[in-house]
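Researcher: Here's the sequence for the chain we discussed earlier.
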Amino acid sequence: MFTKISGVQRQVLISSCLYLGQAVVGYSNAWPGPVLPKLRDLGTSPLPYLLTETQLSLVATFMYLGAIAGPHIVLWLSNIKGRKPCFILGGVIVSLAYILMVTTRNLTLLLIGRILTGIGTGAIAVTNLVYIGEIASARIRGILLTIVGIFQTVGGIALFATGPYVSYEWTCYIGLIMTVVFTLCIFFIPETPIFYALQDNDEDLKKVLQDLDRMDDMGELLETKEELKTRDTKREWKDLFSIRSNRKALFVVVVINILQHGSGVMAVLFFSAAIFDMAGSSIPSSLAMIIIGCFQLSGSCVTPIFVERVGRRIILITSSTICCLSMFTLGLYFYLDYIENPVIIHIKWLPLAVLILFYVGYDSGLGIIPNAIIGEMFTSNVRSKGSSVTMTTSWLFGFAVSTAFGALLEAVGGHVAFWFFSATCAVAALFTIFFIPETKGKSLLEIQKAL
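Model: Thanks. This is the structure I predict for it:
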């Protein structure tokens, strides 16, 4: 398939195919931002009636419910049929979701489309982390995994750069086109070495390791295969909780991913228009989100450069601290606005500046590292299950936070919500200091032994 390129180049090229899938995830996550204003206007909405704020909140957050189910759907498929079929299944489901949403004329079908979008993107997102974690050499694995976050940001920027200026239908068509291209690319990538080891397929295992220039890892993988021969597939769930290293890995990745979603990033993304309107910003919300997206991208691009030099922990601590301070400041702004302090008139620019700082901080660490370490910490036979449990728990927490955020904005003001997000980010920084191990430059087996 690929000729006259090195193993590392092949790893990068294969990962590039998967990054398009993560762009689909980012695009789908950000979709409510520019679309909710269209649904508030009968002239631009595909529905023949206006939705209540509660119904609009459900349109935004129902994707979370699908994303909770998505990883579990691919659990069996990933270890029995392979990682590639999981990507294909996710791509087909997302494609069907966008087709449904572009043709819908009632709220029920729109919500079903959003749930299907969540199922498909949840499957793609968790399989991305597993797949890249298994094909990448130790020296570049951190870089390749952190780039996943960059392309999720790129997907969001694509949405905010086009969504406000095209019809509702075209916001769906663009997502559909991206998904179809991604799904077609999957047919040209190999299976992972770990999958072949799980299937006791030494011939294909050796071939893919040669293609990836990872023959030095053959011994470790054969050792892993021999260990797996003594295990029953039915015991994999038990292994996730009974093996000390897996149990500790599960605790670490579940908690940090819950804290990631508790930072408020998705709530701010979903209700960006409402936030800027409440803040009285002179900059249109659509332009403000494009500006923020570009700064997000800059934050995302910095991390892969330093992640293998500085390490995951320092980047994550710094990022969480920046997010904590920025959310506290934004909460203070909304509190001053809530008590009608006259100083607000002179600082209308502050929400945009603070959100730029927040997203730069978030995408430089807190938005990337928790996902990256999912692909590094579990033993090979339970990696898919551990990833699924983590994604399920964090998406469920994110659904609760994002759904509650819309109500909090109307009921008690934005300051309470933003101060909650600030406290969550502070906890993330402390949790990193005391519980998250450094995985820089270590092989997957070395990480397991350290746990």
